[in-house]
User: Which sequence fits this backbone?
């Protein structure tokens, strides 16, 4: 019997995938072979437009098991996204559009960067939250301008990672019925049979999370059953759906069902027998039957009509609801509301001392009112992070009685990593969402995996990271960050703001909100800080500036956050001894490094010794200073004041080190550490 | 009716806990009030000896909800560990023995440092693994020299964290029936009612993991029911047990059942009414009724007899099984097998080029044979990390047919964070376990929360972190570490070895295995590296040494790992131009920084410009160099050779930068970056 067009399509997808891996002699053929029928069936149901891959009301597809990317690329080629067979031939080669894991910046049609396991499914939860929130905010009777779904493939590895547990538990709580996940139950991971480490009952676990479970017993061949399952999933209300796909890794390969087929190219013989089994010429390569091309093209035509219908609907919407229509239009164009930052809080030295977390609360209260696309939350530290705008409603299923889906405040629970990955999903959904999440600075580290991906894939999420030093006091060293800022400052494309007062907090928020192509961490104090005489929003936006000028300084102190005011006090102490000390506030390394060298050298010039002062690890501060005063040990439990005193982060402690630095460098010629011998090569 | 002695004991525990929080005017009274009956009931069942808190066959108690530490400290005081009411009065004060979260180094009787949520329960899984492995290895018929249990309290926060999901899933798979966990189901977290973010069915989830579930419906008062549940749990075979304790946070307080009682001291009136309700004088403070003291002392006496019986048993064991007995004795004394490192692999420049991950495999094969307390595994990357000694057996429940409990190779599954926390548990169990876990370097970051605790609490676990740079090639930027080493090097008390060849790999292992008081990360290559002419184990153990000497060098290159040989090749290129370049291999910052300044200054002296070369973030390298060549951007997917060429990490690319550095510093007086103006204050 001749294969059906769907069977032929699946064979074509399988063929392109294994040929790509074979061309690269590197990659993962196993999952594409097993998942091709599911991918085909799901994409037949999806709304998308390859010539407008960012169409707002498209369905989103997330490949959480990103190593299976040959599968996704094959689909993108067949559907004629901006990706061709030539690109497949460059699979995993430098500068190709088909990198070894899906990268959202490299390949049109890739929604989100995946590969690190557990992230994609958690991103998908974020996308589903964003869609729900958008729909609840803007949809009107007869005007469902947003009703897209999120489809996500994931493997055993994703299910084992804790980040996916966090996000999946929250997805169940939030009753996200716009999310359909497909578990590739192939019983194989890199170490071999999942029997060796992963014998839990996944469907029961997801049921416990509040998900609806469906199963397809033969997802290797039964395209119709997969298709039916999707139809059924789309009908489920108030629950995300997990569809268990029983598959065989490397289906059809001589090595099927073994981990040998997971991450290594197939042998030449195996490729040949596979192609024969599909009815292809055994020597064919990247073969696309014409009827398959046509079949995929038809689907695209039908999808395009759906987009046209949506455009019409949206156009009518804008007429009938001009206010909302204009707002949606603005958001889809990626523009900010006019004048949004005009009235952001600013301060003078006469204003009272306030903790920067409290100042942050004031800014969030303000931003909430002027930026409707601002949506945030906290990992169960709302009262400590002060992240909940007074006027906000919780994002909750209405049936809970605790909020509704148009709410813009998310109760993440104690799930920092999940929160980070969900924020990436919200950010990637589109509609210009600006999203933030609160936790203690030290526990942003739990989310390192997600934060790194935000930076890599240019997602402008914002971490409101309070309790940023030993200044948090009694909770002790398990809660006191030491290495944390060094870690984050070393991540490319990440802003790490540590504001010293109210104006600097406002600047940090302006930069973070405007920084749609990079994540930002805002490190904020638990304790009060004074408003500084020379601070300004405008200067702070440069990432570093003179916060305490001095004529012909004997020493320059570079500092950040809570240590800036103490450093200024040290400068005042030393002034009494006729020692001239200037203080530079480095609010964000990333932004400061972008300033012209001339500007930076004016602040940190040749000929003056520079001392850095920050009550965290000194690691990295030598790029701005000759000497470093910091905390290269873990903190301690005690009253904040006692801790600062014990570690000598007092005006006297700083002054003592300042004097020793001046003494040491007396008569020595010092060069500014800003110089680079090969700047042009960087 | 007069309260029973158990009720009186519970009131006493509650009283001490709230008085401690009140004295500090800081801390968490809610959980201790709710959990005191459970803590009391469990400790009545436990074997332990306050005057020998490290007795090997004691039962272990882990407070995963570490913020409830006032509860634990109260028990330790009542059982007369080295902790008194005076210490309770110093709760959360600087340098006290009663810090804000339990710290294993500060307080006798605290098994493990907790506070960061989700860690303790995962540590408990590690302890249970260690106990099982020890028992299976050494117990003999009629000689159960190890039969201790692990009891762990945890709260909703711990259950929400992904790390606990990872560890709990593995615990179910491993059928750890020596682990009994108690869930404080008080329905309150910091954000308020758990209804706002945590509505999953926890018992069903744990059932899905393979745990046995028990419930106590009134754990506020029903001490007997808790006690019965423990008895029942102790009878369960082949499953860890989760006992759900339905409690009221802040039980008895006027604010009971609200998050107001979670993290703030009780009001004076509330304290008074509580004490009256217990039948105490309302003005009493840190009150311990004599009959309670006696009751606890009796338990200790009975426990001491158990220890004496065990000592007798062990003594007979040593007679009957002298070989095993001597080995156990040695391990309990914390000594290494004699001559264990005598035959560790060493290399000469004539040996062939090998990837350091492969060299690591050779060392592990060797160590497996000579150190019976070595137990390791991988987070589902065994074939890539090369972490499985050839002779090893998997640590598995015998019923799986995949191994047995005396196995020393753990299949962690894709659970890096869980693995990190489990390793801490294995390490803390005692019996001198030396434990390692493998994953890609980039994914050690998933476990940042656990790694930081290893460093803080001096746990000598070892990360075998392979694929340590863009040298991993095609998997691309999601898998290529950039900031990772900067992050780890900034963590106090952590060794980060990045060996350049075989001798340096052996040195790294010697240091890591001997480093029982600090964790170690071993960053290893996927790609082959040549054996270096001037490398030696002895020198590498200093953390940094001259790997390519040069007379009167014009420039010194400091480098690590895979870039050392390329830097030497650059030096050779430059020698042809009569430019003299020395190369220093910095194998581990932590170890190098401990060397005498004199030694370090000999390597990095005044008067010579220094260039660092490492294909990762340059962040932090300025502490050893004037100029830095690194990768301050994310990597790319492509063949490793193409990537190194594109980023110019070639002899030519390094030589170019070396020449520019020499040119820039010509005529300028350079100081060694090792100088410190206030070393004595550090």
Assistant:
């Amino acid at each position: 019997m001749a294969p059906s067009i769907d069977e032929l399509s699946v064979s074509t997808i399988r063929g392109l995938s294994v040929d790509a891996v074979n061309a690269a002699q590197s990659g993962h053929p196993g999952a594409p072979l097993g998942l091709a029928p599911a991918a085909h069936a799901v994409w037949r149901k999806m709304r998308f437009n390859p010539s407008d891959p960012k169409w707002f009301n498209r369905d989103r597809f997330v490949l959480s098991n990103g190593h299976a990317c040959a599968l996704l690329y094959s689909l993108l080629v067949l559907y004629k996204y901006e990706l061709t067979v030539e690109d497949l031939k460059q699979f995993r080669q430098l500068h190709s559009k088909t990198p070894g894991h899906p990268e959202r910046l490299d390949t049109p049609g890739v929604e989100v960067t995946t590969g690190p396991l557990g992230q994609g499914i958690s991103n998908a939860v974020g996308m589903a939250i964003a869609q729900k929130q958008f729909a609840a905010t803007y949809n009107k009777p007869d005007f469902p301008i947003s009703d897209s779904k999120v489809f996500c493939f994931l493997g055993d590895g994703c299910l084992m990672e804790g980040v996916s547990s966090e996000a999946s538990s929250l997805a169940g709580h939030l009753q996200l019925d716009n999310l359909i996940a497909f578990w590739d139950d192939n019983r194989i991971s890199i170490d071999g049979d999942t029997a060796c480490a992963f014998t839990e009952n996944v469907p029961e676990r997801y049921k416990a999370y509040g998900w609806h479970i469906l199963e397809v017993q033969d997802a290797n061949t039964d395209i119709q059953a997969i298709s039916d399952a999707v139809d059924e999933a789309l009908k489920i209300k108030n629950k995300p759906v997990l569809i268990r796909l029983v598959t065989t890794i490397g289906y059809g390969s001589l090595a099927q069902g073994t981990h040998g087929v997971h991450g290594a190219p197939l042998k030449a013989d195996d490729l040949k027998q596979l192609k024969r089994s599909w009815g292809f010429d055994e020597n064919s390569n990247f073969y696309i039957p014409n009827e398959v091309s046509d079949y995929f093209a038809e689907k695209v035509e039908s999808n395009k009509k759906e987009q046209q219908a949506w455009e019409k609907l949206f156009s009518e919407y804008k007429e009938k609801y001009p206010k909302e229509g204009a707002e949606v239009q603005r958001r889809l164009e990626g523009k900010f509301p006019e004048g949004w930052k005009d009235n952001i809080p600013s301060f003078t030295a006469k204003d009272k001392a306030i903790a920067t977390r409290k100042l942050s609360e004031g800014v969030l209260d303000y931003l909430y009112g002027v930026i409707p696309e601002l949506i945030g939350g906290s990992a169960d530290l709302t009262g400590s992070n002060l992240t909940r705008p007074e006027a906000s409603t919780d994002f909750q299923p209405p049936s809970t009685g605790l909020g509704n889906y148009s709410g813009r405040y998310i109760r993440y629970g104690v799930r920092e990593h999940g929160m980070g990955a969900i924020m990436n999903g919200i950010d990637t959904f589109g509609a210009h969402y600006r999203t933030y999440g609160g936790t203690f600075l030290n526990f942003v580290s739990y989310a390192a995996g997600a934060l790194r991906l935000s930076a890599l894939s240019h997602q402008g999420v914002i971490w409101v990271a309070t309790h940023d030093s030993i200044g948090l006091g009694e909770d002790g060293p398990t809660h006191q960050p030491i290495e944390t800022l060094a870690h984050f400052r070393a991540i490319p494309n990440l802003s790490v703001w540590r504001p010293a007062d109210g104006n600097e907090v406002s600047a940090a928020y302006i930069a973070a909100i405007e920084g749609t192509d990079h994540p930002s961490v805002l490190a904020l104090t638990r304790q009060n800080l004074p408003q500084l005489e020379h601070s300004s929003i405008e200067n702070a936006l440069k990432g570093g500036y003179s916060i305490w000028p001095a004529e012909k300084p004997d020493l320059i102190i570079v500092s950040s956050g809570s240590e800036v005011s103490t450093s200024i006090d040290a400068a005042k102490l030393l002034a009494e001894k006729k020692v001239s000390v200037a203080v530079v506030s480095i609010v964000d390394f990333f932004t400061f490094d972008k300033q012209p060298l001339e500007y930076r050298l004016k602040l940190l010039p040749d000929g003056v010794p520079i001392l850095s002062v920050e009550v965290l690890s000194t690691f990295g501060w030598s790029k701005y200073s000759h000497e470093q005063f910091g905390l290269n040990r873990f903190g301690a439990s005690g009253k904040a004041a006692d801790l600062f005193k014990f570690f000598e982060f007092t005006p006297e402690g700083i002054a003592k080190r300042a004097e020793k630095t001046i003494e040491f460098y007396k008569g020595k010629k010092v060069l500014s550490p800003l110089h680079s011998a090969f700047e042009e090569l960087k």
